[in-house]
Amino acid sequence: MLNQIQEAADYIRKKMNHAPQTAIVLGSGLGDFAQNIQGPIEIRYEDIPHFKQTSVTGHAGKIILGKINGHSVIVQQGRLHMYEGHDITDVVLPVRTFKLLGVENLILTNASGGINSQYKPGDLICIKDHINMTGKNPLIGKNIDEIGPRFPDMSEVYNKELLHQLETAFKKIGLNFQTGIYCSVLGPSYETPAEVRMFKTLGADMVGMSTVPEAIAAHHCGLRVAGIACITNLASGISLEVLKHEDVKDEANKVKDKFSNLLLETISLLQS
Length: 272
Ligand code: HPA
What we know:
Blueprint: H1 2-15, E1 22-26, E2 38-44, E3 62-68, E4 71-77, H2 88-91, H3 93-100, E5 105-114, E6 124-132, H4 160-172, E7 179-184, H5 193-202, E8 206-208, H6 212-220, E9 224-234, H7 245-254, H8 256-269
Parallel strand pairs: 1-4, 1-5, 5-9, 6-7, 7-8
Antiparallel strand pairs: 2-3, 3-4, 5-8, 6-9
Helix pairs in contact: 1-3, 4-8
The structure holds hypoxanthine (HPA).
């Protein structure tokens, strides 16, 4: 496994001009943010050793290196999901590769169904903690001692300092700052109303099919993690509307300017 991560990182390193400081994973329908990257260098997953292909519409399948206001970034446009049939270790390979490239901060973004009654479609919510309902963990198997401990502490997966910087960014651009607990499921079927009621009872504020594998692997290897969920719909049973992936993408698309402004403001608060 370590060899695979090193080979992927070696391939990307040959193409890059400067080490990226911050990695951003763009969720469903949020890929347009990549247009903000200056001097972009694009690399398709199919060209990177050991990277798997994404099969989901709304997920492009490339990484883009470049700068945003002087800050070097690496952006993953199109993430891999377990529901596509990918092994969880393949889902987290990009994040582990970013660590080897010198990345310090990881911003994970996603589309989520809102469970908390305060949330409306179009809201951007900062993830303060998660509940892993996927039944999977990316750290299963022989531990890679070179990148992290066998039994990592999980009391602060989402870095408090980054969360504070997100709060500053939200306020600067006049957005309501809300935090919440993200519950991740395997998918691809959406939840039943009974499942959503259960997640609510457990303390979840929103539900989605990604983010948690990457957050666990990233925290394990010492990255500072932040998460932003775009509420694209009210979760099953909270609203009586039938859920469709097309509607999820459309709703994410509607907030793309707000989302881009928030990320740009957040990046400007990170040191160059
Ligand atoms: N459930 C799970 N994943 C999602 C949802 C949802 O309601 N909306 C967007 N991704």
